[in-house]
Structure of SRPBCC family protein:
Amino acid sequence: MNLESPKVTIDKSAEETFNFLADVKNFERLMPENISKFEVLEEDKFLFALKGMPEIVLKKKEAISPNKIVLGAAGGKLDFSLVGHITELEEHKSEVQLAFNGEFNAMMAMMIKGPISKFIETLATNMKTTV
């Protein structure tokens, strides 16, 4: 299953946007309002939970400055990645799009497609005012 957030324009350079996303503790500021738990486990790993959903642990798997950050599932039953694609538009303006990629059976995909789409859209939207 592949899902993409809308592209959002941020009034920061690609480098500044990359540096913000490369620090996993900053993801707490991007989370939706219905977050019930957020905890930094290691320098490159964090755990979060949304109300009514299981806890998810994400680990920074790859960081290619200033254009790409890859977070992936760290343990658990589901294998997926969340990729932030950062594009420099102007000196102090960049564009970010989040992509969610995962392999799920049809039933699981049907159940999580809506919540995951809304989640990555919220993360991207919150970047406009947070980064």
About this structure: The beta strands are 2-4, 8-10, 35-42, 45-50, 56-64, 68-73, 80-90, 93-102.
